[in-house]
Design brief:
Layout lengths: L13 E5 L9 E9 L11 E4 L4 E7 L2
Antiparallel strand pairs: 1-2, 1-4, 2-3, 3-4
Length: 64
C-alpha cells in the first residue's frame, strides 16, 4: 500500500521510508511510526513520519 494518504498511517504502523539523503538512490529504511509529521491529508511523495529510532522520512510502503 502506498504511503501517500495520511488516513492509512497510524502510530505503531510498520512502514518503509525514504530518507532525504537516500531520495536519489531510492534506498528504503524499515521501521515503526512514532509520529506523523505531515499535516495535510495527502502528499504526492509520501507522508513524512518519524520512526521509533528517530529516523525521519517519507512513507513509500505500508507493511501492516
Amino acid at each position: 500500500m502506498p504511503g501517500t494518504k495520511r488516513e492509512n498511517i497510524k502510530q505503531g504502523t510498520k512502514v518503509r521510508v525514504v530518507q532525504k539523503q537516500d531520495q536519489r538512490s531510492g534506498k528504503l529504511t524499515e521501521g515503526v511510526v512514532l509520529r506523523i509529521l505531515t499535516n495535510s491529508d495527502t502528499h504526492p511523495h509520501g507522508i513524512k513520519v518519524m520512526l521509533e529510532n528517530g529516523i525521519v522520512g517519507r512513507v513509500k510502503e505500508i507493511l501492516n
